[in-house]
Design a protein that fits this description.
The chain is built from twelve helices and twelve strands. The protein is an alpha/beta fold and about 350 residues long. A hairpin with an 8-residue loop joins strand 4 and strand 5. It is globular, with a radius of gyration of 21 Å.
Length: about 350
């Protein structure tokens, strides 16, 4: 898996929000790699910085947030007329004008995003078809009629019933699950190299969620695209991701493959997150009595405060006195492809 080629490399990304109350370091030194055709899961509680990382990648961070530093290297493939093979060039998305020509040609085309709430991606007073064809004509040299054909084909691929008819439907005429399928069709109509999915199934019932996850996996195989899957739901991560980054307060605290994450998690925060998932076996072993869910001690600290040492130390059951509250841990590679940001694993 690690030998696969890199599509996006995020290096020491810092995205801060400067508010009258203080500065929120929403993303504070994040390093991540997305490989072509693979799925990277990004998991953590609300406010851990996972969505802001995605918005930074697309250069859609809302004001007063801004990228303060770091790199977002996008290794894009350039098909050159007459060349026997495609070339790859590297562009630092963090340096582009958010609304400049180059970023607009990448966003929605080579990198696209599906949000949690489909209504936030669809304009309620315009038909689904007009919104999808607009994305297609913006990025591809095709006529309006050809764009409509591509849109109908894509709606069929996401298995929207009566796709041609759905082109003329308004978003409110579709159910929640159907709207999310339409949004996925819109995100995939230009065959992106990377799809960022930010909690795309949270608002859906479990049956529809399972169908949407299956659909995304199928389309990923068909289009060979990478997915960055952002969620707080570890069950979804288990189904979707190959590599997983666990984020806490704007930092990646553990990065590993999905099997290791569930079988041998190392960071105390990852272990606490896993213990907070209800297990079916708990109820069985307790004779059918409802198990008590384990919670993570303490509260997520005030977002304006800058904690010395490890940001998890006020809640960590394994904190080392006079070390964890003073010295920020570095990132230690404990095995190939498995890194942890914790003093328990730092080399002496
Ligand atoms: Fe806990 Fe210390 Fe590790 Fe932070 S560095 S997670 S406080 S043991």
């Amino acid at each position: 898996m690690l030998g696969n080629s890199v599509l996006v490399e995020i290096k020491n990304l810092r995205t801060y929000f400067h508010l009258p109350e203080g500065t929120v370091r929403a993303v504070d030194g994040v390093d991540l790699t997305v490989r072509r055709g693979h799925t990277l899961g990004v998991v953590g509680e609300s406010g851990c910085g996972k969505s802001v990382t995605a918005l930074s990648l697309l250069r859609l961070v809302p004001s007063p947030g801004r990228i303060e530093g770091g790199e977002i290297l996008f290794y894009r493939t350039v098909e050159e007329a007459g060349a026997s093979s495609a070339l790859t060039d590297v562009i630092d998305l963090a340096k582009l004008e958010p609304n400049g020509r180059e970023m607009r040609s990448i966003r929605g085309n080579q990198i696209s995003m599906v949000f949690q709430e489909p209504m936030s991606a669809l304009i309620p007073v315009r038909t689904v078809g007009s919104q999808i064809t607009e994305v297609i004509t913006l990025h591809q040299k095709v006529s309006e009629a050809e764009a409509r054909e591509i849109a109908a084909d894509m709606l069929a691929r996401v298995r929207l019933p009566k796709p041609r008819q759905a082109l003329d439907d308004y978003p409110f005429q579709l159910s929640g699950g159907m709207r999310q399928r339409a949004v996925i069709a819109m995100a995939l109509c230009c065959r992106p190299k990377l799809l960022i999915a930010d909690e795309p199934t949270t608002a859906l019932d479990v049956t529809t969620e399972a169908q949407i996850l299956d659909l995304m996996r199928e389309l990923q195989k068909e289009f060979g695209m990478a997915i960055m899957y952002i969620t707080h739901n570890l069950g979804v991560i288990a189904e979707m991701a190959e590599m997983v980054a666990v984020m806490y307060l704007g930092k990646v605290v553990e990065l590993t493959d999905v099997r290791t994450l569930f079988m041998s998690p190392l960071h105390p925060y990852t272990r606490a997150l896993l213990k907070s998932i209800p297990q079916l076996t708990d109820a069985v072993t307790r004779g059918g009595k409802k198990p008590r869910l384990q919670t993570i001690e303490g509260m997520v600290p005030d977002p304006y405060s800058v904690l010395p040492g490890c940001t998890f130390h006020p809640r960590c059951p394994e904190r080392i006195p006079d070390v964890c509250d003073r010295v920020e841990p570095g990132v230690s590679e404990v095995a190939p492809g498995h890194s942890v940001k914790c003093h328990l694993y730092s080399s002496p």
